Amino acid sequence: MARTDNKTKETAVSVDDFIAQVVDANQRADAEKICALMERLSGEPAKLWGPSIIGFGSYHYKYDSGREGDMCRIGFSPRKGQTVLYLIDGFEGQPELMARLGKHKTGKSCLYVKRLSDIDEAVLEELCVRSLKYMAAKYPPA
User: Fold this and answer.
1) Strand ranges inside 15-128, DSSP E
2) Are the CB atoms for 55 and 86 separated by under 8 Å?
3) How many of the other CB atoms lie within 10 Å of CB of 47?
4) Per-domain boundaries in the chain
5) Is the pTM of this model over 0.85?
6) CATH architecture of the domain with residue range 15-138
7) 45-103 tens-digit pLDDT
8) What is the dihedral of CA 123, 129, 111, 90, to 10 degrees?
């Protein structure tokens, strides 16, 4: 299968402008804090991917089916009512960290939180560090 055209691509839209448009003041403050954290940990500037994902760095993936594309290495999206964090899963110690995180929900490679105040930010930072490390091993930077 040839490379398909992904809808979620890095854009030139200002991340600061995007965050400024988050209606809920608490969620906007959380977004600013998460953005600073992920930028510091990844060493990459924040970029808007598609219409609503704030991502850091990028990697190229190729599935066994032949589908391939590019995506951010780590990211998040302040969605209505919750913030979605995009972290790779499957790294060593993840279940133990998730058990200590606090109030959250999960989906495939997604972590959903209503407020940063609901979770342990030190545990979130460790999840991000380990996710980035695992991502670098699985998809080495070009």
Assistant:
1) 46-49, 53-56, 59-62, 68-71, 74-79, 82-86, 105-107, 110-113
2) yes
3) 20
4) 15-138
5) yes
6) Alpha-Beta Complex (3.90)
7) 999 999 999 999 999 888 888 888 889 999 999 999 999 999 998 899 999 999 999 99
8) -110
